[in-house]
Structures are given as C-alpha cells and as structure tokens.
Amino acid sequence: xxxxxxxxxxxxxxxxxxxxxxMLSYIPKHIQEKSFSEYGETLEGAADAVWQxxxxxxxxxxxLIPAVKPQIAMYxxxxxxxxxxxxxxxDYCHEKDLVVIGDVKRGDxxxxxxxxxxxxxGSVQVGAKKYTLFDEDFATVNPYLGSDGIKxxxxxxxxxxxxxxxxxxxxxxxxxxxxxxxxxxxxLYEHVGEMVAQWGEDHMGDSYSYIxxxxxxxxxxxGKVLRKIMPxxxxxxxxxxxxxxxxxxxxHYFNEDGLGAIVNSSRGIIAAYKQxxxxxxxxxxxxxxxxxxxxDMIADIDGAxxxxx
Length: 309
Prior knowledge:
This protein is of the alpha/beta class and 309 residues long. The chain has one domain: Aldolase class I (TIM Barrel, Alpha-Beta Barrel), CATH 3.20.20.70. 46% of the residues lie in helices and 16% in strands. It has twelve helices and twelve strands. The strands form three sheets. The protein has an eight-stranded parallel β-barrel with strand order 1-2-3-6-7-10-11-12, surrounded by seven helices. Strands 4-5 form a two-stranded antiparallel sheet. Strands 8-9 form a two-stranded antiparallel ribbon. The two termini are 28 Å apart. The model has no long low-confidence stretch (mean pLDDT 93).
C-alpha cells in the first residue's frame, strides 16, 4: 500500500491528505436540517449529516488528492451510528481510489493490540468465514507501550500489505512534557524515531517502508533531525494550516527525491467555507471552498519545495 500511496502522490503532485474530522459545528445548516427531517434529532440523524458532509467534500476533492485521514473519535462520539458513518466513509473513499489512513491512535499490547489491528487493517475469522471490518489502508498507532504494542500491528500489515504511521513527535503544544525528555542525552522522540526505522526495515515497499511516522509540522527543525534518523520512513505531518504550520515549515520532512512526507490538513479544508479567505463560496457551496483550499495547499507546498531546491 505504501507503493500505491507514492504512485498517487506522484500522479497528483499533491503530497497531502485531507483529514475527514467532522464536527456538527462544521456541517452547514442545510445538510443538518435535511438529515434531521428524515431521521429526527437523533444519533442516526447526526451520523447521516456527517456522511452527507463527507461525501460532498470527497466528491469535490478526490481527483486532486492521494489520500484521506478520517479521525475515528469524531465518529465514535455518535456511538454505533457514527461508526457506521465512519465505515461508509472509508468504503466510499476506496470507491474513489483514495488511500485511507485510519487515524485511530491505538496503543495496547498482546492480544488486545492484535484485535485492534484485525479490526482496522485485517479480517476476523467467524467459523468458516472471514470478514473484513473497517478496512483502512494505514492506521495510526501510539508506540509508548513499546514493541509489544507494535509487533501485532506489523504482523497484520505484512499479511494484508498495509501500513502504519507511528507517533514520534506530535504537533500539540504539550507534547514536549514527555516526548522531549532527555534519555542518554537525547530527546525521547529521537529514540522512538530510531525504533520506527528498525521496525520498518522488516516491512519495506519498493523505496519506502510500510511503517511510517507521525511528526508535527509545528516543529520544523525537529523534522530535519528525524528525517535523517528515518531516511526510508514516510512521515505523516499534522499541524498544517489551522495549527499554524505552513509550506515553508515542511521542506525538511521531504527527501531529495521530493517524496518521504504527506501533509495533513483537516478543518483548514473541510471547514474552509468558514474562513474569511473563502467566504465568497457561501455555506451552500462549502465543498467548492474545500476544493479551493486543497488547490491552495498544493500550491503552497509545491512552491516551498521548489524554493528549497
């Protein structure tokens, strides 16, 4: 699957991923009203509004982008109906030939970790039958329980030719409380980066590993360090746009081949119509605003990479 992701990045010239992280506050009133008129002000109605919102954005952007990243918590908050919308979104993205990164941030050990991996990346055996469940192409994983939490995921990834993005240095302001702590004179995130590179050596694609890393755009100098530590690791970069990251902050995350990183923007794209910059699109044309935000992001990153050469 890492090979497909790279092929699609080359084809679109867009090393970006759209974060499908819907909140009801992002969803235009006309969509909410239509869903509530059919299902009432219920969890089913909320989940339908989420699905309709996602579908419109996917339809307006799928030809521009290689991948999407739905954040499962935004669906779990609506219970079982929300998870149905999550699955429906994943399936529809696959119909549009998009790579799906399940932002699930699982972190456990042993059989529990294996069960998470089965649920999101693999298939479960029920009697004589096998069932594929959420079926994302990649999943995000928290490594802070150590190798016991990662190896069950890697085993499923090998079976299914799927991949991981492992948290190394996250974009949130308090990440340094733990991740920047010095161990043997070096910050913890460097040690984690080395482990990610080691885990990845055992599950390689043509040029990059199936085992990627998450490194926030809000720490560009650290990106330079971690890029050297993980030369064959694809880096998922959150924190662009709404969290302050810009194209100029991202150049160190890429290798000289122009690959090696994929940059996420969530509300900066899916709620673009709420920004002053895109207010001319109006709420009814929210998905067109999202498309323009994608085009602007592609241009920003492409310009920064060309300037850096």
